[in-house]
Amino acid sequence: MIAKESLLLRVGVLGCGPIAQFAHFDACHKGRNTELYAICDAAPDLLERMAAMHGPQKTFARFEDMLSDPQVEAVIIAVSDQFHVPLCKQALDAGKHVFVEKPLGISIEECESLRTQVHAVRAREHRVFQIGNNRRFDPGVQFAHNFVRDEIGGLIAMKAWYCDSTLRYTMTDNLQPIPITSASAVKPGGNPKADKRKYFMLTHGSHLVDSARYLGGDIESVAAKLVEKYDSYCWFISVDFKGGHVGHLDLTVPLRGDFQEGFQIYGELGSVYGRIPLPWYHKSGDVECFSVKDKQFRRVIGEDAYTYKLQLEAFASSIMHNKPQLGASIDDGTAAMRAMVAIARSVEMGGAVRLDTVTGTV
Prior knowledge:
Blueprint: E1 9-14, H1 18-30, E2 34-40, H2 44-54, E3 58-60, H3 63-67, E4 74-77, H4 84-93, E5 97-101, H5 108-124, E6 129-132, H6 139-150, E7 155-165, H7 168-175, H8 196-216, E8 219-229, E9 232-241, E10 246-255, E11 260-267, E12 270-275, E13 286-291, E14 296-299, H9 307-320, H10 330-349, E15 352-354
Parallel strand pairs: 1-2, 1-4, 2-3, 4-5, 5-6, 7-10
Antiparallel strand pairs: 7-11, 8-9, 8-15, 9-10, 11-12, 12-13, 13-14
Helix pairs in contact: 1-9, 4-5, 5-10, 6-8, 8-10
């Protein structure tokens, strides 16, 4: 039995597509401080099916109508990447707290424009804006983050990798509900998945870059190479962090083998090694932190690792109790977009590229 708090954040979910079906509807139900108050989708058949399955108090065919409902306190924007920024702006204008799926957007310019609006709103009133980088809520990743912050001392180097698998859907098809689709669903123009360089970087690279920043700090420049062979895309990326340490990132999609996501961190007073499972298993990352202080390895075990639920609970706590924001912020999302664009420019031009010099999209 889920122990719900007495005060619940009334959430409206925009988009009844796969990520809402796989994660956000259930997370709202299971979150200790969240209520799935409303859902919204332009496809009437999909909206009807999702309403019957998940039982929100209200349904809306138009986002404007959901935003005009004063009972909707916060919105989850779970639609195609190309729609994120304009819909976030619309929700902010309506006075709502905003949770948007990663990546924040598809270009630096639109992300910077949204960032300006978010900061302007915050200067006037309490508004929370969070991006759905759910890896930050893996208990192992949080344990590593706290260890790096509090105990490891100065950083020397970091390695991180994200390797999607040719076998990924063999596993996830058994973990996720069968997605329900609609011919009336609103989709962006063209086929965003046709440009695999861009699609893989935005979809998977956004996780890798955010984890690197969350654990290793702000990135100053990158130097990347891309190999495209055997229908796979492999980015090897050298990183200079602003803290003076170095890094290496590996993004490979797909890998002939098991799904792999993880990191190694070397510091003045310790080291960290972590491997993160597919998030759909709801199992904590296998993370070990070694400290020279006691010459012991430490790890977490048995923690709640439903990261999609945990990120919404933290979002709600920031709103209702003014708790510090734990999730990725508008600044994090904009910096991640800059990192992904810099990686793309480095592949195109060769050599190192500073994040503060790039424009455009990946």
